[in-house]
Amino acid sequence: MSKKKISVALTGLNNTDNPGPGVPVIRGIRESKEFDARIIGLAYENLEPGIYMHNVVDKTYQVPYPSEGTDVLINRILEIHEKDPIDVLIPNFDAELYAFMKAEETLKKANISTFLPTLEQFEERHKSELPKFGEKYDVKVPFSKPITRSDEIDNLKEDFDYPLMVKGKFYDAYLAYNADQVKMHYNKISAKWGLPVIIQEFIKGTEVNVVALGDGHGNTVGAVPMRKQYITEQGKAWAGITLDDKRLLDLTDKIISGMKWRGGMELEIVKSFENDLYVIEINPRIPAWVYLAVGAGQNLPEALIKLALGQEFDPYTKYEIGKMFIRYSYDIITDVREFEKLSTLGEL
Amino acid sequence: MQIKKNIAVSETGFVFDPTSGESYSINKVGQEIMAMLKDEKTPQEIRTRMCEQYDIDQASFEKYYYDFTGMLRQFQLIEEDE
User: Fold this and answer.
1) Residue A33 belongs to what domain range?
2) Which portions of chain A are predicted below pLDDT 50?
């Protein structure tokens, strides 16, 4: 069977020590038995490593940050599409999803397919909305409280026991043992990600994660649970292993069917010492460790493309247990002319 | 006492718990005891067998045996309804 030629544009080429999911998503797509994909990288920064990985990304275009305005970003995408047509667009950052979800119809009219959660789904799984989410979908969540003023920090002891978690609305999470540490993290996080900053009860236990894909009708298209075996100082997985835990899969199904989740997601769960499962975060996109799922038998990036193109797809029902991933760093040698080309022309 | 069914013990003494993702290493004696627990042997049967095979008295074996099984329980390698 000859492979269908498609063109896939995606973000998240920052394969750094805090990696975006772009490169692992591309690796999954490259391994597809059904698609022969031309990969168009969309880069926000000119030193995102994926830009210079020419066996991974065929062509890269610089795009403006969503903070410059949804229209500015989408117009740039349409401009790229005009000279280098895009069949499927896969945004890989939480912070840009809002812009792409809002522009879904515009992109569709231009024949660019996406497979994204709805705005309502996106909003209700926000960290600041977690207590409401837990109540609505009957899942255990840690007690959380969004704060918008630093003078609220001294009163936190009325609602929380230390230590507690201090989290940014999109990224970053720090453990704080006292009010001074909360203040330090609050300032750092609010400067980087804005407000609110979320204060969350710290659940002692083992952190496990699930990468999953929902079809938007309440069905789980695929799901693979993983435990981090080696964690970087930034809390990112540097090694992990697939798990055999039906409770994690049942919880994933419950959330996807309840929300009718559409698109990729990552569930961050803490298994407490009492063996209860607490959902601590629901990330609305495929995580950077997705290639483990591909290696374990579920090519979720390929499945996402099929869903975006409206193709029939039989859900994955199994994966290999005990499959491991171990990240590594690698120095690419490139030339200043490549850097110059991207910096001046906005493409490479 | 029953070892969880999905716990894998390799010939080299590598124990893998696929539910938690944890792995452990055990020595030959530990492997023998794990194998007997998997075969649902009683503590008495295990004690008799080990005391026949090794130069150890029953009281000393029991002490080590309960230490070992306590550790298996702590690592949640034992069926929960036990």
Assistant:
1) 4-115+331-345
2) none
